[in-house]
Amino acid sequence: VLGGGTDGRNLPLPQGWDRLVTANELFADGLAPAVVFSGGGTSRIAEAEIYANAAAWLGIPRDVMVFETSSQRTRDHGHA
Fold first, then answer.
1. Is 42 in contact with 10 (CB distance < 8 Å)?
2. Closest by alpha carbon to 27, among 63, 3, 53?
3. Could you tell me the pTM of the whole model?
4. What secondary structure letter does DSSP report for 66?
5. Rounded to whole angstroms, how far apart are CA atoms 38 and 43?
6. Contact criterion met (CB below 8 Å) for 40 and 72
7. Is residue 39 a contact partner of residue 78, using CB atoms and an 8 Å limit?
8. Strand, helix or coil for residue 74
9. 36-68 as b/e: b if 16+ CB within 10 A
10. d(Cα 57, Cα 50) in Å, to the nearest integer?
11. What one-character-per-residue DSSP string does 25-46 give?
12. Residue-wise pLDDT tens for the chain (80 aa)?
C-alpha cells in the first residue's frame, strides 16, 4: 500500500482509503498473505504507520503487516 498523503488529523486522504480497501479485499480473499505499507511522509508519524493503523481498523491483522518508512517520493517506494 503506497502512501497517498494524509490529512491534518493523521488519516489517509481519499485515494489512500481506496488503496486500503483494495488491500483489505485482497487480504480477505487470500490473495495477499502479507500487506506492505510504504511511505515516510513529512509528519512525525510515517505514512506507512498511519495507513497501517487505518488498515487495522478495516480488519487487516497487525501480524501480516510489513513496513517501509523511509521513502519520501513515489519513485522511492520499493527501493528503500
1. no
2. 63
3. 0.86
4. E
5. 14
6. yes
7. no
8. helix
9. bbbbbbeeeebbbbbbbebbeeeebeeeebeeb
10. 11
11. HHHHTTS-SSEEEE---SSSS-
12. 988 889 989 999 999 999 999 999 999 999 999 999 998 877 788 999 999 999 999 999 999 999 988 777 666 655 54
| Cα(51)–Cα(34) distance, integer angstroms | 14
Q: Three-state SS for 6? A: strand
Amino acid, single-letter form, for residue 46: A
Q: In this structure, are residues 16 and 3 in contact, taking their beta carbons and an 8 Å threshold?
A: yes
Polymer length of the chain: 80
